[in-house]
Amino acid sequence: MLLLSLRKFIFYLLFVHCSSFLHDWSVLKKTFRLFQQAKLQTSLERAQPNYDIVFKCRSTNNQQVDDETNFDLQLGDLKGFHRLRSHRSVALFLHGWRDEGSKQWVQEMLTTWIHFQPSHYICIVDWGHLSQNDYKAASGSIFEVGLTVAAIVESMEAINPRFSRKNVTIAGFSLGAHAAGFAGSLLNGELEQIIALDPAAPMFTMPTIVAPKYRLDENDAQFVQVLHTSSGTLGTSLKCGHADFYPNGGTVPQPNCQQSSQIPETRNRNPISCSHSTAAVFFKQSMDPIYPFLGTHCDSYTDFVNGLCAHGHLGRFGVHSKQLNHGNFYFITEPEEPYVKPVSIARRRFVTLLRFNKLIS
């Protein structure tokens, strides 16, 4: 009898202790969220269109891909806008913290994108003078960047009434993903799509998740696809798009960051920052239609690796996505470039999927 009472007393103490811990953690989370949102709200209220942000754009002659034209778009300067033709789609790329438009990897992204989509205007949004600040200041700058991007798109429509924001794609890496989301929200979610590359976690979903108006959300464009490569560290694990892709589970370290050589684009040997940068590397590689980044729809990565989703439908990540599939998608990559199998191996299943989707759509 005494032993039974002692056990009950111990269970009671454990219950009280756990309840107290959960209560304290709930209060702490609420405090963190209030702090994060207060900081972001202050930045949001102070945000103004920035006339120093330059959109470095490139276009090609469809008949001669090597015939390239470079021009700038900038608020307050109309010269570049008159180069735009309403029948062409526009793609904008927003870099992340401590980056700038002149960085080699950003320029390589521009060159690769225009090579594989020569019918587009491709622009690098250079907000380097803001991204070089400390992280707290840079994270607050996403509203200024997003406001400027939205103003540029609205200027395109005002100068050429036949041009539509529905033909605009914005890709953003890290903080750039949240800036893209804010621009999309200002444009009423009418952008064609947003491609978010490992959206930054600190201040947005870490230590707590802030309200959607401060971060990327699936309502920011007609289609939002997200690539997660360092979930729970520099990048968020939160599903924030219509289609979220988790290569190798989306966690650190990515296979290419475990090799002694590592990917040259990252220029570092830190497995966390390397995995974060891998999102941009995979995005650039995915532009080559020969190497499709195909994910299998599944409830979890554990189910995926255990073969429980072998018959799940496929979704394609990147600029060649048909924007048909929603949900979470998982796939495995190789440690070295090109990271995925060429289309000759993957094509049969993917083509079958596309035909099926056409039948049911």
Automatic annotation (TrEMBL):
Stretch forming the signal peptide: 1-18
Stretches of the chain forming a coiled coil according to its record: none
GO biological process, one term: lipid catabolic process
Any one GO molecular-function label of the UniProt entry: lipase activity
InterPro entries assigned to the protein according to its UniProt record, in alphabetical order: AB_hydrolase_fold, Lipase, TAG_lipase
Family matches, as Pfam families: Lipase
Boundaries of every Lipase domain copy: 84-338
Cellular component terms (Gene Ontology): extracellular space
Subcellular location: Secreted
Keywords noted in UniProt: Secreted, Signal
Domain of life, per lineage: Eukaryota
Protein family per UniProt: Belongs to the AB hydrolase superfamily. Lipase family.
PANTHER family per record: LIPASE, LIPASE DOMAIN-CONTAINING PROTEIN-RELATED
Name used for this protein in its record: Pancreatic triacylglycerol lipase
Organism: Glossina fuscipes
